[in-house]
Amino acid sequence: MNAETSKLQTQVVIAGAGPTGLMLAAELRLRGIEVVVVERRPAGTVGESRAPGINARSVEIFAQRGLAEEFRNRGKILPAVLFSGLPMAPHRFDPDWPTALIVPQHETERILTARAVELGVRIVWSTAVADLRQDDDGVEVLLDGQDGPASIRADYLVGCDGGHSTVRRICGIGFPGDEPVSSWVVGDVRLDSPPDGNGIFGRNERIGTYQISRAESGWFRLSLMRTTPPADRSAPVTLDELREVMRDGLGTDYGLREARWTSRFSDGFRQATHYRQGRVFLAGDAAHTHSPIGGQGLNLGIQDAVNLGWKLAAVLDNASPDSLLDTYHEERHPIAATVLRLTKAQTALIKPGRQNDALRDVIADILTVPEVCLRLSGILSGLDLRYPLGDTHPLLGRRMPNLALSIDRGVTDVFTVLQQARPILIDLGAAVSADILAPWADRVNRVDARLESAQPGDRWHLPVFGDVPAVDAMLVRPDGYVAWVNPANRPIDHETLTTALTQWLGAAETSSDTPTFDTVVR
Fold first, then answer.
1. 227 with 206: CB under 8 angstroms?
2. DSSP structure string for 136-149
3. pTM (2 decimals)?
4. How many alpha carbons fall within 13 Å on the CB side of residue 297?
5. CA-to-CA distance for 280 and 171, rounded, in angstroms?
6. CATH number for the 404-519 domain, one of 3.30.450.20, 3.30.1330.20, 3.40.30.120, 3.40.1170.60?
7. Per DSSP, which regions of 192-284 are E strands?
8. Residues 343, 268: contact at Cβ < 8 Å?
9. Per residue in 261-290, pLDDT tens?
10. Burial letters for 158-196: b for 16+ Cβ neighbours within 10 Å, e otherwise?
């Protein structure tokens, strides 16, 4: 922090340089918005696995921003979707089911930090939000940094500062939920005598389900329940405590000799009552906290970021009204509530006890039923999410599948044409009139294409979705969700298209000039 920083003005301040804050910052910069990220830590996560699960929807989101290949190179494919550690195999019933990854969080943060900096995001380390004051025109963010107090004036502030969010506390936003009952320890450790060489995933009557798995070369990821709660839940986990918990629950510490990262988690669950207060927003763990069983936390935060980012940009560009920002809470709050409910169920199932053992056996059997497997896998993978954008077609409000598209210069796909983080109007032969789109010509990318793998008839078979009525035009939001479709073999419904364009891109602009569209060609 310095004198220059203390006088800084920007469009958006983000508190927190974890995955959620970094993703949001990159989303805003893709749309040309000025962003400053402030982070209380002196640097990003180093050598910590933390939240390593990248679910299938997050992998798709990274593909929509040109990052998926780097994540795949740094991670390993997760062969199943886990419900409380019980494997589900949706690939058995849908061979095209998208894959998930295991990537240590320090690698996730490294990739996202590099992208954010490349796009021009300024990250101020060793600096925390101390207070804030908002008015009709913006937010004054008071900071505490290495060089003392300072402030930044911004149009908006987003708290991505974790479960103990300072931003949420200052705003007085309610954070109701369940108090923790049970406690677990977790860490990245070195073991002189690791079980079975590569680790184990097991269960016993003292601590329920436990995990010792190879995280990276030389390091094992450890997660196991304490038989008694810690005297101080906020106290750091020591090497001696890890040894004690391992010996108590497993009968051995497997030669534990070093830990590069340790932490504890509980079965407490909380969710912010609202994600927006005026010009301040909450995202990621600042908006919702839960046990990490099921690996949903990081993924919820990534999806919060891509939902909020383009909406903030549209309002800051004066293209859309302030009311667009209300849809962030309306869309994301119910999704997190559903995830918290499922995570509660999964957390209950990992606990010890003969009744839980019997229940796990029953659940494991039920999970082999195709409909159950696909339904739960869809929710836990983030693929089955549906925003309330209408029910006239199965694709409305759902993620846009990555269809291969033939365009003038060759073959591309939907995720590639979304990499600019702009809305796209995909015309598959409907010949949407340029006059209809003219008022939004500078706000939407038009893609005239045909399906590379054309499917005959009036229905498409899509991964995850199954059979759906074919369409010949669709409007896709920057976050990859379908906002409007025109069913195949029907005249263009100009009224519903105009309504969708107005709702998501802002009011129409009149001009006597011939419209020029940004047509994406790769």
1. yes
2. SS-EEEEEEETTEE
3. 0.95
4. 23
5. 8
6. 3.40.30.120
7. 199-204, 208-216, 219-225, 256-266, 269-271, 276-277, 280-282
8. no
9. 999 999 999 999 999 999 999 999 999 999
10. bbbbbbebbbbebbebebeeeeeebbbbbbbbebeebee
